[in-house]
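Q&A log
Question type: sequence-to-structure
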Amino acid sequence: MKQAARQAEPPATTEPPLHTGLLGKIEQALGLRARANLSKRGKVLRILRAMLIRPHSLERTLAHATHKRNPAQGILLLAWGVFRHALEDISSPLVKLFKPAGRFFNRLNRSFHNVLDHTIGKATPDVYLKRFGFAVYHRPFLYWLLVVLGIAGFLFVAQASLPLVGQWVFVAVCYLFAQMFRRMPKRMAHLSLMFITLLLAFRYIFWRFTSSLDLVPGLESMLGWLLVLAECYTWLILFFGFLQTAWPMQRKSVPMHTEAARWPTVDVFIPTYNEPLSVVKPTVYAAKGLDWPLDKMTVYLLDDGHRPDFAAFAQQAGIEYISRPNNDHAKAGNINYALSRTHSEFIAIFDCDHIPTRSFLQYSMGWLLKDEKAALVQTPHHFFNADPFERNFDEFRKMPNEGELFYGLVQDGNDYWNASFFCGSCAVIRRKPLMEIGGIAIETVTEDAHTALKLHSKGYNSIYLPTAQAAGLATDTLADHIAQRIRWARGMAQIFRLDNPFLKKGLSVVQRICYANAMLHFFYGIPRLVFLCMPMAYLFFEYHLLNAAAVTIMSYALPQIFFASYTNSIIQGQFRRSFWSEVYETVLSWYIILPTTLAFINPKMGKFNVTTKGGLIEQGYFDSNIARPYLILMLINLIGLLVGVLRLFVWNTHESGTVLMNLGWALFNLSILGAAVGVATEVPQRFCTTVCAWLFPHSSSCPQATPWPATPKNTPRRGLLWP
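Response status: OK
Response body:
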């Protein structure tokens, strides 16, 4: 019986053959299953096929793209996914083959970083630098001697002539110093990285003007100088930006120590024009709930739309209602009309979609009471909902909002130089200095920044408190977003033309630079388009816009581009991603060229436009009108890419380095333009009120039934939405 049972047992499964021989070891390294029945030729072909591309790339990509929300976005993600997975598959065999070497270099890199962290990360050079700076500052001779020696040394290194090998050695040394400096305390690290970046930038500038502009007269020379002017703009903005954000103030709130009975009176202004009442109501109710003595605070609804239902709501809510007889000067005129009919010592201003917290006044008023010369306290603009970039790419709360760089870093840096300015909402202004300059500025469509410029020119101080104390609605669509930024760009160009900070009396040198940088920033439209189109000058017409060998150009250009991006990523990391900064500017560049140019020529052209908010997008769609300029630019760069490949193999093969350099430039342009086109794919926005992503357990039950657990996915301002 036992023998029969053993005979009845199924045969044991055979183990797969082990990897043997050199080819077997390579198969094992590549993650391929062993196949004993394959010939050597078959194994070699199989290994080569695996090293080129894996067959599962397209399957993974299709599986990733099928759940997307609309066809246009699915196609874009599919194209990107095929490219990305193909790169992964091509590189993964090489990574596996060289894994031991990779482990060695990873250990070496970790050891190097650990040494730096141990030796430099615990140092406190900023304390000694402050003491040294204080001692030098009070010895004028030593102070100016160090300034002259520092500038002379900087310029000597910037213009020192080096062979190409020496240039790359210098870049490598700068990189090693950057790795050491970035482990210093935060502010010292940032200042050191800025210094290294500016040093490499000045080396490039010196080389650019002395060794690359011997161009053929005519169109080639014109295009070459156009490229130089675009680069000059970026260098100026880089330098101004570093100075502006060199030392963020990170100011703290001053507590209200005096008795509540001695607190000053405050008027709360909520200007509105054509916004729906559903957007305005939450702001009014929140303003009424501000933690401030009721007899010292009055809320005003400033209705420039002359709507009876708003007047009825104001009466019902127990607030004051002001509607002027005309609509002159838009929002600025609306506020100025209210100023002539109110009398409190301070004015708090909120856009009608910005809902303040209860603590807003107590948080912001302390500095105004402490500093009698303080005319303005500004707090950040924070948004409940996703802006078009976050929503259309499904990156809400995953990447920084487009405005976070300004409110998180730039305004904080401005505050150190007493140059933070009024942003139109979420702010408190002292009435006396405001009336001294004639109220809110009416000469331009960016009345907020212009008002702050006038206040600073009169010697008043501004305060920026970096903690958000109110939240509002971001723009609904990319078209609305662009329209809002066009108004800002046109207004800044108007101020630069009418009230130029470089010429205005009463400002410090750095205040002039901070204001000028804010205004010049919106002139990036033409330089951005120059960079997007210039590779075609060589790929199409063989124009040499830089008269130098490709390896020389890259030896000077690539280091300064890399270090500028690297330093900005360190300084701006939590507020802005470097790649997305390029995308933001690219999306707006085409649309701000004409408004800024016309506003600079004739500042009185154009009118104030109100940004639409609180809308719905019931179905996703591709905004072809907005995306058209970028589709055209993508097509031009794609054609340039194809022509460049032909130049590599068919004609002009003697300049392969120059061709490759321009191909890389065109590829970078395509990556940015692809994102710019992608953001024009509007996805549905299903709530006209604000939705907060909350997750909390809840138990519900019906009569004569057992309770069941539930978790609400989103919470609108007016109720719960159950899954």
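Response note: Residues 313 and 368 are 32 Å apart (CA to CA).
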